[in-house]
Amino acid sequence: QLLEAKASLNLAQTRHARQLQQAKAQINNMVPKKQCEQLQSTLRDEQCKTQQLQESLHQQAEQTCKQLVRTQEEHEHLLQAAVEQAERLEHSLRNAEAVLAERAAQLKDAQTQLFRNEVLIEDLCGENRGFAMALQAAELKQKTMEEKNQLLEEQASALKQLIGKITPASLS
């Protein structure tokens, strides 16, 4: 718009200069007074239009300048906000990576401990099987001993009865 306004202004100034030259030439050629007045009126009108175009062009240039300044300020503000957000995101990412690394280390430690516990459980299961077999053997031995003990008690009871029968007979 600024370029168009400048072009219009240049065109009007050129037209004005041409009309001025024509007016001077006509005056020099002894233009009648009425025509001269008409040309002067046209000249004043053209000068007024030129002045209006210059003012309009100046206003448009000021508005465009102000708008450019506002746009530049908005862009700078948006850029600053984007930079700050990028910094916040980068900080969050570093924190998340640190937490992730810490959790990975914890998981590795837990996995190592779990492996140790599995080995210990296997050892305990082996010992438990050994104890179970020893207990089973001891129970079998105890049962055998109880059966022998029962048999000995029965034999002792039978001997007592026999002694009880033999002793009165031998005393008599």
Automatic annotation (TrEMBL):
Any coiled-coil regions, as ranges: 36-165
* A biological process from GO: microtubule anchoring at centrosome
Q: Cellular component per GO?
A: centrosome
**Which compartments is it annotated to reside in?**
Cytoplasm, Cytoskeleton, Microtubule organizing center, Centrosome
- Which keywords does the record carry? Coiled coil, Cytoplasm, Cytoskeleton, Phosphoprotein
Record-given protein name:
NINL protein
* Species in which this protein is naturally found: Serilophus lunatus (silver-breasted broadbill)
- List the lineage, top down: Eukaryota, Metazoa, Chordata, Craniata, Vertebrata
